[in-house]
């Protein structure tokens, strides 16, 4: 983006941040629901992984709401707070677990 365009619309970074968090929560919600409905494993493990994804989606939405509220107040949240790191690691572990479960099926 050109510097002049960025200066003309100071709210765009906040909007992009909000949309990124929303997309992440929606992706987790969708994948969790698909794991529950279509259960590719055919075992209780598939349902468990789907439930974990739904819980992570809810957690992501809550963290997103708090961080967006901070941005709206003009406070810049820290780049890697504990809750963000925990969510990121949890999503990574969930992704590896689902991938391994599907490949080992």
Structure in a nutshell:
The chain has four helices and no strands.
Plain-language structure description:
There is one protein chain. The protein is built from 4 helices and no strands. It has one domain (3-103). It starts with a helix and ends with a helix. The radius of gyration is 17 Å and the shape is elongated. It has helices spanning 3-8, 12-38, 44-72, 82-103.
Largest sheet: none
Structural class: mainly alpha
Q: Cα-atom Rg, whole angstroms?
A: 17 Å
Uncertain regions: pLDDT < 50 for 5+ in a row? none
Number of domains: 1
List the helices and strands and how they pair.
Layout: H1 3-8, H2 12-38, H3 44-72, H4 82-103
What are its keywords?
mainly alpha, 105 residues, elongated, 0% strand
């Amino acid at each position: 983006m050109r510097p002049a365009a960025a200066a003309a619309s100071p709210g765009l970074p906040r909007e992009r941040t909000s949309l990124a968090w929303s997309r992440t929560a929606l992706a987790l919600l969708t994948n969790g629901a698909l794991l529950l409905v279509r259960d590719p494993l055919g075992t209780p493990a598939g349902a468990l992984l789907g439930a974990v994804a739904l819980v992570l989606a809810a957690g992501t939405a809550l963290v997103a709401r708090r961080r967006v509220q901070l941005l709206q107040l003009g406070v810049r949240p820290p780049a890697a707070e504990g809750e963000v790191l925990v969510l990121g690691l949890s999503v990574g572990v969930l992704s590896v677990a689902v991938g391994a479960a599907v490949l080992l099926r």
